Amino acid sequence: MSSTDIGSGSFLRGASPSRSPAEGSDWRPAATIDALRTRAGMLRATREFFARRGVMEVQTPVLGAATVTDPAIDSLRAGTPDEPGPYLQTSPEFHMKRLLAAGAPSIYQIGPVFRAGEQGRWHNPEFTMLEWYRLGFDAPRLMDEVAELVNALLGPAAYERQTYAGLIDSRFGVDANGDEDACLRTARDLGLDCGAGVEEALDLILAEAIASTRIRRLFITDFPRRLAALARVGAAGAASRFELVLDGVEVANGYHELCDADELEDRMAADIRRRRAAGGRKVDVDRRLLAAQRHGLPECAGVAVGFDRLVALRLGVANVGEAMAFDWKRA
Amino acid sequence: MATYSTNEFRPGLKVLLEGDPCSILASEFVKPGKGQAFTRVKLRNLKTGRVWERTYRSGESLEAADVLETQMEFLYTDGDFWHFMNTDGSFEQKAASSTVVTEAKSWLLGQEVCNVTLWNDEPISVVAPNFVELAVKETDPGIRGDTAQGGTKPATLATGATIKVPLFVEIGDVLRIDTRTGEYVNRVKA
After folding, report:
1. Do A72 and B31 touch (CB under 8 A)?
2. Cβ contacts of B41 on chain A, cutoff 8 Å
3. In terms of C-beta density within 10 A (0-12 exposed, 13-18 middle, 19 or more buried), how is residue A327 classed?
4. Domain B3-63 belongs to what topology?
5. Are B7 and A191 an interchain contact pair (Cβ–Cβ within 8 Å)?
6. Collapsing DSSP states into helix, strand and coil, what is residue A286?
7. Considering only residues 33 to 52 of chain B, which have any Cβ-Cβ distance to chain A shorter than 8 Å?
8. What predicted TM-score, i.e. pTM, was given to this entire model?
9. Do B37 and A18 touch (CB under 8 A)?
10. pLDDT, tens digit (0-9, with 9 covering 90-100), for B177-186
11. Domain spanning A23-157+216-323 has what CATH number?
12. What pLDDT digit, counting tens, does each position of B39-82 carry?
């Protein structure tokens, strides 16, 4: 694979210049009314899907006292001039896990989540997340259910499963777990400057591997321990985490959930150290989540789906703005 | 010094990269699920015309380039520099070297209004008008009557540039030329 081949990356392929709507016409939605009708149908089909399976719909707060510690996710806050205020939730995960710890059965939620600074063709700072938790499921079983839901919403098709390392090796011929020099070299070929560390290099390599995959419905499995997030880590050292990629777009992220409260606390502390080292904003551990997990999170698997992306794929449009009533430029 | 952060990147923005002024052609925000956010950018180097692709961490910034695209009238060349004048009535003049004028100099005789890109007030690129009309200075004798048949011959224009022309063209004819392709369009005056 020549470096020019890699460099003529797939991100910019088909990228339409993202211009702001003209004043005077920006009161209109970017989505057509027909697109919103399709979206409404998908929402209804999703609720029917879970109702048939006995999964209970819940609604948890959009505003919370705590937020995630992920180094690469920044929360917005609903402040007043006098105080920073509560966090707009980046995912309903913590509240939903507290419900599970309190004895809830399998649950799902469809609602708005917020992430600072995430704006682009496939990103909107406010978006709709579909998240669900299945008691007693492991990652492979939850992947099957994700595929069934996608089949119900987009029509049936074949799925492939590739490990994180297998995907990167097949796309770039690079051993993600061993060959740091090759990782850095590949990231440089993708236009990243030389100061990058290997973790950052791998983030870019993964993003490019995802965007350029020819597999139309792909589950990526077995993430490295560093990217375990809140997934449990198996005996072989791989995280029981998966992502679903549809036509080069990341749509879902799931875990066989980590139940061990001590391990959770360690990972959050490590996140906070990494945030501090990177100069990120300070956040505190969500003590209510920790207390819930000390009480006991039942064995479960959970997954989050970017609903707007799913709608965009169903509509055949190459941006989420046309899949939601008003994107951030019009909100 | 003004800078632009990755979230301000948009097509047409002029930035400095490796010391050269560049124009952003496209930019895209990318972020793998839980990973670092990046902004991938396609830029045209305004000095060389080459297209570069770069990847930045989101939140990084690039210095703004003081670039102005304007129209100027070509006046004359002294052999080393090509001299241009503002068309806004200020009569302000700029001199561009041969390396800046590049292909445009094949088509410039005087009074052509060119697209000139200024960086820090100095010309960095000159693009000739899409069409120019130039007289033929030298070519083999024309073949009478052959106004429609194919077949071409070389002709040297008043600027010194040589192009392919139909066989009927004669010395002194004024030709219309597409400067983007360097091709003969038609004969304006025989």
Report:
1. yes
2. 191
3. buried
4. SH3 type barrels. (2.30.30)
5. no
6. coil
7. 33-38, 40-42, 52
8. 0.81
9. no
10. 999 999 999 9
11. 3.30.930.10
12. 999 999 998 889 999 999 988 999 999 999 899 999 999 989 99
